[in-house]
Amino acid sequence: MRGIARIGLALGLVCLVAAVSLAAVNYLTRGEIERKKAAELRESLSVVFPEATEFRERPVPEEMGKREGVSILTSYEVLGEGKLRGYVFRVSTMGYGGMMVLLLGISQEGILTGIQVLEHQETPGLGSNITEEAFQNQFMGKSIDDPFEVKKDVQAVTGATISTNAVLRACRGVIAYFKEVESKP
Predict the structure, then answer these.
(1) Cα–Cα distance for residue pair 158/179, rounded to 1 Å
(2) Three-point CA angle 6, 8, 11, nearest 5°
(3) What sign results for the dihedral spanned by CA atoms 165, 167, 169, 175?
(4) Which of 37, 40, 106 is nearest to 75 (CA)?
(5) Closest to 67 measured CA to CA, from 179, 180, 183, 173
(6) What is the pTM of this model?
(7) What is the chain's percent helix, strand, coil content, to nearest 5?
(8) At 106, phi and psi to the nearest 5?
(9) Which SS3 state, helix, strand or coil, does residue 66 take?
(10) 91, 121 in Cβ contact below 8 A?
(11) Hey, how many other C-beta atoms are within 10 angstroms of the C-beta on 133?
(12) 125 - beta bridge partners?
């Protein structure tokens, strides 16, 4: 009986040391992880809206940010030379493998300036091709009045219809929000 108690106590101590060590590493690296995430987001915002000199984060009320299966998580006013040039939206929607998070930029004139997939869980080699430049570049320069439908104005990723449709749903959701909220004077 004493042998089992010793083994249990030893395992408990090992677990306690491991838990404290993990908590300490998490606490010590949290700031650096947040800084790197912020730097990556700034870089991605610049890719989606290259003409921007400044991005100002604007809150999106949760009840306003739900559109057609899309959640608009954050919007950013895009400034260039001191003037409002457009908006970038960080959105989430359901893909084939789970939630995906994207950035979409729209100019004041209603033109898509860029799209970038930030996070996804799509199938490697199929759905993950939505992160390829060739796929994302076909959205640049499109008008918000375009239909955003496969075979009409967007070329789908072969073998990844659900992933392609998730990106299109994100575009339509952001455009609906933009038309209803942001484009009004």
Answers:
(1) 31
(2) 110
(3) negative
(4) 106
(5) 173
(6) 0.83
(7) 45, 30, 30
(8) -135, 130
(9) strand
(10) no
(11) 8
(12) none
